[in-house]
């Protein structure tokens, strides 16, 4: 069996082969048929294969096919759930970096502050406590601290 093809369709092909063997007059016990189908499961089904092998209650071919169909449906639904999230994470991760509409703002001031290329420094909107000027913080103020202290006293 192959991982690339649905397991149920491959099991149906095996059933046709087993039916042809029975049509030729040879007899195969149902437990042998179940064991043969389990043994032929693809490598991606290794854990489920071991689970079926260690099952204490014997099952017939119909019960096996029901279990395989349920397992395949579960695997397909899990694959559908996880596949879009991976793509969505990549889009979010690279969204701003590769956005053509947004043009990077670069000025001499940003490069003096050691800002990396492609990063943006958001402009401060509040009032400076040092000089009472608008548009920068006291930590970024160009006036010396003494000027502020002199203003507070007077």
TrEMBL record:
Q: Which GO terms describe its molecular function?
A: nucleic acid binding; zinc ion binding
Q: Which UniProt keywords apply?
A: Metal-binding, Zinc, Zinc-finger
Composition-biased stretches (Basic and acidic residues) = 134-154
Q: Which residues form the CCHC-type domain?
A: 127-143
Could you confirm whether the keyword Metal-binding appears in this record? Answer: yes
Could you tell me which SUPFAM superfamilies the record lists for this protein?
Retrovirus zinc finger-like domains
UniProt-annotated stretches for the region Disordered: 93-115, 132-154
Q: Please give one Pfam family short name.
A: Retrotran_gag_2
Name of the protein described by the UniProt record: CCHC-type domain-containing protein
Task: Give the lineage.
Answer: Eukaryota, Viridiplantae, Streptophyta, Embryophyta, Tracheophyta
């Amino acid at each position: 069996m192959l991982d690339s093809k649905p397991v149920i369709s491959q099991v149906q092909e095996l059933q046709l082969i087993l039916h042809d063997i029975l049509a030729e007059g040879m007899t195969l016990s149902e437990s042998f048929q179940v064991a043969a189908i389990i043994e032929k499961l693809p490598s991606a089904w290794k854990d489920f294969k071991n689970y079926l092998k260690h099952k204490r209650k014997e099952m017939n071919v119909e019960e096996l096919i029901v279990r395989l169909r349920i397992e395949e449906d579960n695997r397909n639904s899990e694959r559908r759930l996880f596949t879009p999230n991976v793509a969505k994470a990549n889009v979010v991760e690279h969204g701003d970096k590769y956005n053509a509409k947004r043009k990077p703002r670069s000025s001499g001031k940003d490069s003096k502050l050691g800002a990396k290329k492609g990063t943006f420094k958001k402009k401060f909107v509040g009032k400076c406590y040092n000089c009472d000027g608008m548009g920068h913080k006291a930590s970024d103020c160009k006036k010396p601290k003494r000027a502020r202290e002199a203003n507070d006293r007077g």
